[in-house]
Amino acid sequence: MTIKPDPSIAIPADLGAVHFVGIGGSGMSGIARLALGAGHRVTGSDVRDSANVAALRDLGATIAIGHAAENLPDDVDTVVVTGALWQDNPEYQLALSRGLPVLHRSQALASVISGQRLVSVAGAHGKTTSTGMIITGLLALGEDPSFVNGGVIEELGVSAASGSGELFVVEADESDGSFLLYDTSVALITNVDPDHLDHYGSLDAFEQAFVDFADRANEFVVISSDDAGATRVRERLSHERVLTFGEAADATVRVRSIETDGPVSFAVDHEGVTYRARLRIPGRHNAINAAGAFAVLVGLGFDPAASLEGISRFAGTGRRFELHGVVDGVSVYDDYAHHPTEVAAALSAARTVVGDGRIIAVHQPHLYSRTRLFAKEFAEVLEQYADETVVLDVYGAREDPEPGVTGALVSERFEHPDRVAFIADWQQAADHTARIARPGDFVITLGCGDVYRIVPQLLGSLERERDA
């Protein structure tokens, strides 16, 4: 069993010396960065070295690779853990035996942001991009917000920073209910597409968590006008100030005239005035994300035209349609998409810029429960939006394996089996991809597990295929 947030744990007024177990993750590394900036001594551990680990070491953190009881310093005051850890983790167990305060990462973040004017971004999809757009917009407006995002913001090179302004922008995680721990001033809900039902148990409980999250916002709520789940949540809200965004005719911020030929351009109608923008990133869904970020900024009182211009400077985040290399005209991208809706959005965005080339998806299913529940939907969107698909095996993350649940559950549901291959061995998958790719094609890895680690193998296989 993995570690869940325990709201009964008293959060120390001063975290003191902090040890992070699983420090390399995007969320954990961001909180560790803030802790270092606040003057805390930071130690930690992770299963592997990474750019996040290297950056934290450069800032003064002491980090061990691998999890072992001896990694926990004798003089540590607080231990922070991630929900991706199993309860038998030796550092976690030793901290418990010592009687140390052991905080879930969401509780540590709640401590760091206590007393600040918080903008929390939640939703099944689009959180990281929307958070990045808000941060980019605020910086362009001359603000200096603090923030913790789920991915590195391209133009800033970091996923978290301490600012001097009153605003703090966070990507709020709904997967385990931890977004309810924050004292939110402004709540942005990008969508409420069913996910994480393994935690909530039912769709109604999942949607009720979003109702609770929104109604607790101190100032106002921004929520999608188009998403079916968000519509159901909006009908249950009791909040006095709710702004909507999307393509619906009655949206507070209405998006229209979306053009997806290359980087997306669109018009936004707000309070009788039309504003136009062209983003630096592709995809129809990003026009919608931009509208949500725009609604937050104008809701905070910023000038609409200047807000939209600032948002348009956003250049993307790490692991969101991120180009890693081009070999003989074949471009290799990586994307975090791990839900059928996200996969459809990522691949449809790629379609707008691939030109005459084909799209080859390399899909790593994430979680056994999600694969079992959505195998048919994954197959449908992959077959609809990709020309060829390679399915890897399941990345189980926090779950134990389920008998019979492998990547084959997805590949077997393709209507045209000649367009898909289930290949569990990564090198064989890379070699197969290189054989079927041709100049002009996009190869896109998809998943929120460790599928990005296959990218060097893909590039290597493409090089060998070219030299053959």
Give the SSE layout.
Elements: E1 18-21, H1 26-37, E2 42-46, H2 51-58, E3 62-65, E4 78-81, H3 90-98, E5 102-104, H4 105-112, E6 117-122, H5 127-140, E7 146-153, E8 158-161, E9 167-171, E10 186-189, H6 197-200, H7 203-215, E11 220-224, H8 228-236, E12 242-246, E13 253-259, E14 263-270, E15 273-282, H9 284-299, H10 304-311, E16 322-327, E17 330-335, H11 340-351, E18 359-363, H12 368-385, E19 388-391, H13 408-411, E20 420-422, H14 426-436, E21 442-446, H15 455-467
Parallel strand pairs: 1-2, 1-4, 2-3, 4-5, 6-9, 6-10, 7-9, 10-11, 11-12, 12-13, 17-21, 18-19, 18-21, 19-20
Antiparallel strand pairs: 7-8, 13-14, 14-15, 16-17
Number of strands: 21
- Sheet/helix structural class: alpha/beta
Principal-axes shape call: globular
Evaluate the radius of gyration. Answer: 22 Å
Family: Belongs to the MurCDEF family.
InterPro entries: Mur-like_cat_sf, Mur_ligase_C, Mur_ligase_C_dom_sf, Mur_ligase_cen, Mur_ligase_N, MurCDEF_pg_biosynth, UDP-N-AcMur_Ala_ligase_MurC
Keywords: ATP-binding, Cell cycle, Cell division, Cell shape, Cell wall biogenesis/degradation, Cytoplasm, Ligase, Nucleotide-binding, Peptidoglycan synthesis
Binding site for ATP: 123-129
Q: Would you mind describing this structure in some detail?
A:
With 468 residues, this protein is α/β, with parallel strands linked by helices. It folds into three domains: 18-104, NAD(P)-binding Rossmann-like Domain (Rossmann fold), CATH 3.40.50; 115-312, Mur-like, catalytic domain (UDP-N-acetylmuramoyl-L-alanine:D-glutamate ligase), CATH 3.40.1190; 322-467, Alpha-Beta Complex (Protein-Tyrosine Phosphatase, Chain A). Helix content is 34%, strand content 24%. The protein contains 15 helices and 21 strands. It has helices at 26-37, 51-58, 90-98, 105-112, 127-140, 197-200, 203-215, 228-236, 284-299, 304-311, 340-351, 368-385, 408-411, 426-436, 455-467; strands spanning 18-21, 42-46, 62-65, 78-81, 102-104, 117-122, 146-153, 158-161, 167-171, 186-189, 220-224, 242-246, 253-259, 263-270, 273-282, 322-327, 330-335, 359-363, 388-391, 420-422, 442-446. Strand 2, helix 2 (51-58) and strand 3 (62-65) form a beta-alpha-beta unit. The longest helix has 18 residues, at 368-385. The protein starts with 17 loop residues before the first strand and ends with a helix.
